[in-house]
# Entry
Amino acid sequence: MEEDIYIHTKNGSLYGKCAGDPASSMVVGLHGWSQRNGWQTWQPLMQPLATAGFYIVSVDMPGWGKSQSWEDSPLSSERAVEVVLAILDSMNRPTATLMGKSWGGGIALEFALDFPERVNKLVLTAPAFRDPTRLQTLIQPVLLAWAMDDPVIPVKYAAEFEDAVPDIEVTIYKDGGHSAATKNASDFAQRAIRFLKGQAQGTFE
# Structure
């Protein structure tokens, strides 16, 4: 079951939900831009990943949900990268895996490119990031989900990621809209667990 968590940074407190053993490898969930998003974006994957042995922290970014706003509004992409850094530093985590949807996926990628030593792996669904040249320099393994019926960021962009990212696994679902990973959680959770554990493709637990 998820539990409340408050992450205290010098710019304000962030609210989120966590699941799993805090001593385990941490996975941080980042949501999309719409105010309909928040920590609950990744709720369908939290318990499966926690049961598999990971510590999941899914947050409301500053100005969303129950999190305090930082001084600038709306939150810029550059500032959002600082938020992720503050989360890891405040929780005394040298590294973490980042899960990101849409805007949150773009932030996860920006952070991984700016602070490669702080990111283990990336789990993304329809990330809002359009710079193939920078993607070619990404050193982290990526698990990417997209839906053929995504009305916000068309599935055609999945091929761009597949061509550019050196180490990537792409799963395309028939449906799921702009939330391919979580709308297909019964399948994607097992893919994510296998990916995070470094198991060969197809050897689901």
Notes: Helices lie at 43-51, 77-90, 103-114, 132-135, 157-164, 180-183, 185-196. The CA atoms of residues 97 and 120 lie 5 Å apart. The first helix runs from residue 43 to 51.
